[in-house]
Amino acid sequence: MTTDVHQLDDGAWVSVNDSREVNVSDLWRLAAHDFCACALADFLAEGFVEVSADGANVEGRIAGRCIQCGAEGVTDWLTLGRVDPDTGEFRPVVPESVHLPGRRRRPAAPR
Amino acid sequence: MPSKVERWKDETYGMEIREHLLRFAEEGWDAIPEDEHDAWFERFKWWGLYHQRKGQESYFMMRIGTPMGRMTPEQLRTVGEVARDYATGPVENPEFGDAYADFTTRQSIQLHWIKVEDIPDIWDELESVGLSTIQACGDSWRNIVGSPVAGRDADELVDVWPIVQELHEKFKGNDLYANLPRKWKVAMTGDRRGSGQGDINDLAFEPAIKELDGEEVEGFNVNVGGGLSRKEPRFARDIDVFCRPENAADVAAGMSSLFRDYGDRDDRFNARIKFLIDEWGPEKMRSVLQEEYMDYELPTAGQGLRDEYDYNAGRTDAHGDYIGVHDQSDGQNFVGLSVLVGRMSADDVIELADRAEAYGSEMIGLTQRQNLIVGDIADEDLDDFLDEDLLEEHSPDPHPFMRGSIACTGTEYCSLSIVETKNRMVRYGRWLRDNVDLPEGVNDFHIHLSGCTASCAQPQIADISLRGMKTRKDGDAVEAFDVGLGGGLGENPTFADWVKMRVPADEVPGYIANLLEAFEAERESPEQSFRDFVAERDEDELANLAESAETSYEDPYLGNTKLTWYPYAEDTSMDASPAPTDPNDQPLPSDD
Ligand code: HEM
Ligand code: SF4
Ligand SMILES: [Zn+2]
After folding, report:
1. Taking every annotated instance into account, which residue ranges of this chain make up the domain DUF8134 (chain A) (predicted)?
2. Complex confidence, ipTM
């Protein structure tokens, strides 16, 4: 199954199979990351910089800021959600739960 | 590889989108195939329609571009009537009621809650008085900005109105320039105030004088590559070109063709011409323009008038806006009225158009400070006009905090936003007016509040810059602002220094109060402007000037307004959204 993903509206949205699914302005909890020095980063998503699909997995790198320490930048790859292989429906992850960026090795993604 | 958006644009873009919109209007919202929403929403922007945010599906923001913000009273009335009849949603706004128009920082008009089914009727009404939504958003020539009182202003070098009309005619609806890599923003200034704010536009014509063939010629210097978005603010750069008024269209055609051909179509984040001139430098920009796009020798730049600029310049010797009564060159007057955060109720818009017409005005102007000008008021009518009831609300002599406030759209409608904006700015303004004494001698104080880094409220060029953020307060995520100080245009344009980060939104008024107290106590003299005061200090000193504080100010929007379907609904939860709806705001039956 191929999943078609792209960012839209200046990085405000991630669109999955031509449906706007993940929006900016959520807070994401990041653990085991090198985004900032916080053990658990409290990351405000301000814009999706790169997105790609790895099978049913939708992943992205997000520009934003840790609102605990103030570090700014772009995250490593984060899983944003999965496309249900049976229904084709996109199931987003819950941003406020804990995420581990960049765990999997990933191929170069088109921009 | 061209971006996805470029592929959609290759399929269908420009004028032809209109036919599709008319078809969707006929067949209704459901006729837009769900798996084509992304492509169509991207294209609709070209005709001035921008989809509203999550929870408001099937509603659109409609933008009407008015070149230089200049309108007739009849056009203004039509805008008011369209707002009254079509720009109403399922829920009222607690500050502004159920129908209103937004006057924007690029001298356009935005209406919200527009249904696709109503578009043909709205276009009929707008177009019958010469207004249009063409190219109001999307990747092409946007609304041309400049002084709405050009030709009437007693304080100008060149009357740019005929030139702006020529550019508008030439570049709107022109297939050659319909599909650019990104938006293309042009400013044309002919006055001595710098009111076009060319420094923050892709292409700027700035008034200048040049000796050519032994003759002093009044025309323009050409600057390229300004813009504020994405934490990458740039001022337009001098490419050392002087342009005669009669050549403005050729130079504009050359520059926008250059952008069309050389702008980055692979990466939209890198597409604006500000990044191309970063890469090339002004010399290469000039030589490519000369060699590939011009058929006459471009003169080098002339003598500009920058030292006279006062528009949004933070000077103490001149107001930096058009508010109040000003002389026209024909002996009449134009009167600038404050429109708080640029939003006016549809009824007031209609009433104002009627009043303006009754006084014989032939010109209404929208300014880049989200205010409105009524032109052509005769001396003998002036007192009566100033006594009109409507001017109590939209005052020609407002309190400086009301006068200087600008706010963007924010979480009310905008997908990009992080925080609530307009209603909050209204509440800030009122609280500051009622609780904070401005230091002696301060007649202007500009606060620009933007909901995100796109910077639609031009936050980097204000005395106080507020940019939407979040923080935690007692463990809860709350809306917040990064605070910048000391930005402005004028002779030496400067971007704000960002000195306080993530200030909770309810502590911003307290911060401003403390800051102004420190300014009053520490400034050199009452003549020192706030901007100069900031310029003298380094970042640490600025950060230590004042602390944020809770005060009697209450903020009803502190929680996460982006998680609501509409921040002011009774039940704000996403599940309570009626959208997508039919043209009467009733929920459409869902198909799953
Ligand atoms: C639904 C409402 C709006 C949306 C979605 C929106 C979207 C955007 C975006 C994405 C940018 C950044 C563009 C870039 O990368 O160049 C931007 C910048 C800007 N927009 Fe808006 N905007 C909205 C309302 C407004 C309003 C009310 C105005 C006033 C006309 C406005 C004027 C501007 C200006 C002045 C900039 C920044 C300057 C620049 O870089 O050129 N926008 N807007
Ligand atoms: S600055 Fe951001 S939040 Fe405000 S209108 Fe522009 S895009 Fe929306
Ligand atoms: Zn951190």
Report:
1. 1-106
2. 0.90
